[in-house]
Specification:
Distance between the termini: 81 Å
Number of strands: 21
Structural class: alpha+beta
Radius of gyration: 23 Å
Largest sheet: 9 strands, mixed
Strand content: 15-25%
Oligomer: single chain
């Protein structure tokens, strides 16, 4: 029979790498009254099939800070817990096939350097010297991070769980939360049932929703909005390749691909521009370490580019074709922090396929926030309070998630507008503005006129890191306003 405490300071729901990291970091701060409940087995949702890439370079300064912390933590975790994490600092290379992509990499490198991340801009020939198997046709340049790495995702989670247990946390597997009790704006406890038939109630001061692709459902149970949707995520693993030795992780975002060497085999993963949402009607009660059906036709365009870019991949057989679900949010940033609808419901979910590299930093930041009641630094990029209620709509999430997976490897241009699930909110003046040449952007679901096209001008953004196509339009609008003011 399963025996759990009657009271806890915090109940963490979900035993993937995120939940384990939150438990680990709370106990490092001296919290001992910590309970983590996992419906099946630790890591059995998404964590177990993650690629295990551990990168530091992110789109914003604070996300880079969090990713850098993860890399540093994983480097010492095995020594602390005795659990082999498979973490290796093999380095990583991201290559650009266009001048615009190279401009993005240069800007990201400058930002990362300011936060103490070791990063070098490298030429095509230097890319070739570090990754001799790569076809350099079209390569403009790249960046190299020597401390980036790769690891075993499941064992990283298990090491975090062991560290939490060592400091007093209770972690219960095969124990599902069936109900969350609430009084006003506060959660008062959770009901649980174990697979051995035992059940009970834990009164608690707060909960943390770390339920991954179940996060939306668990959020509803707790009276909060956690907008996310699962998508199919594909990768292949080759047969063993003779002479293949340790290599840096390689990303070719202009071809939607990443490559990882592991035990003499080559993994190719993809973030295709139009993805396949999954689980629209719910997730099976029995889901545990499950795979999704293969869809070679969907993956084939990525594979064709990859075989050209990495010729040895075309000569090797495919050992594994894998398809598994990952959760994605409407804006491609994860959800972290205190849910605005409740006073004691915290969230760490929706990690957009970067959960392993984000887990350490996210767990550290959230635990400090929970401990002191104050954010340790600016977390506006991921603060769940940025979400709107309408974004919890399942149809909206289904449509938006088709785009957000691919945006991970798209050019992250300034002012880039989402293309899917648009037109949610329109003012009474929308059609009038449209008739006068308005080109619309979106903010909090509202369609708003960002600039006005001239007669005959295409009403669309032409993105760039330099002056974009609306620059002169905006300048003329400002000048006209200036000159017509009485």
């Amino acid at each position: 029979m399963t025996h759990l405490p009657k009271h806890a300071r915090v109940v963490i729901i979900g035993g993937g790498v995120i939940g384990c990291s939150v438990a680990y970091h709370l106990t490092k701060l001296g919290w001992t009254d910590v309970v983590l409940l996992e419906r099946k087995q630790l890591t059995s949702g998404t964590t177990w099939h993650a690629a295990g890439l551990i990168a530091q370079l992110r789109a914003t300064a604070n996300m880079t800070k969090l990713a850098k912390y993860s890399q540093e933590l994983y480097g010492s975790l095995e020594e602390e817990t005795g659990v082999a994490t498979g973490f290796k600092r093999v380095g990583s290379i991201t290559v650009a096939l266009t001048d615009e992509r190279m401009e993005e990499l240069k800007r990201s490198a400058a930002m990362a350097s300011a936060f103490g991340v070791d990063i070098d801009e490298i030429s095509p020939s230097e890319v070739g010297a570090k990754y001799s198997h790569l076809n350099l046709d079209g390569v403009v340049g790249g960046v190299f991070l020597d401390k980036d790495g790769q690891g075993d995702p499941a064992n990283i989670a298990l090491a975090l769980a062991k560290g939490a247990r060592m400091r007093g946390a209770t972690i219960a597997e095969r124990t599902k939360v069936t109900n969350i009790s609430r009084t006003g704006r506060r959660v008062t406890g959770v009901d649980w049932v174990a697979e051995d038939g035992s059940h009970g109630h834990i009164a608690c001061d707060m909960i943390v929703n770390c339920a991954g692709m179940w996060g939306h459902q668990v959020g509803r149970m707790a009276g909060v909005n956690v907008p996310l949707h699962a998508c199919e995520h594909f990768y292949i693993v080759s047969e063993p390749i003779a002479g293949l030795s340790q290599l840096p992780v390689l990303r070719v975002p202009d071809e939607c691909a990443y490559y990882k060497e592991d035990a003499g085999k080559l993994m190719l993963g993809a973030f295709e521009p139009v993805s396949k949402p999954w689980g629209m009607t719910g997730i099976s009660e029995d889901f545990e370490f499950d795979q999704l059906p293969e869809d070679f036709d969907h993956f084939e365009p990525i594979l064709e580019m990859a075989v050209n870019r990495m010729p040895m991949l075309g000569e090797a057989g495919i050992h594994t074709f894998f398809n598994g679900p990952e959760s994605f949010t409407p804006d491609d940033a994860y959800h972290l922090g205190l849910a605005p609808e409740m006073d004691n419901v915290w969230v760490a979910a929706g990690f957009n396929s970067i959960g392993i590299q984000s887990a350490g930093g996210a767990g550290m930041a959230l635990s400090q926030w929970m401990d002191t009641g104050e954010k340790p630094f600016d977390l506006g990029d991921v603060d769940i309070s940025r979400m709107q209620q309408f974004q919890g709509n399942k149809h909206y999430l289904f449509e938006r998630s088709k785009e957000t997976l691919g945006l991970l490897y798209a050019d992250h241009f300034p002012y880039r507008q989402k293309a899917t699930a648009r037109g949610v909110r329109r003012t009474p003046f929308h059609e009038h503005l449209k008739q006068n040449g308005a080109v619309f952007g979106e903010l909090a679901g509202w369609e708003r006129a960002n600039w006005y096209a001239e007669d005959g001008q295409e009403r669309d953004y032409k993105y760039s890191w330099k002056r974009q196509n609306w620059f002169e339009n905006s300048a003329r609008e400002g000048q006209n306003r200036l000159y017509t003011v009485p």
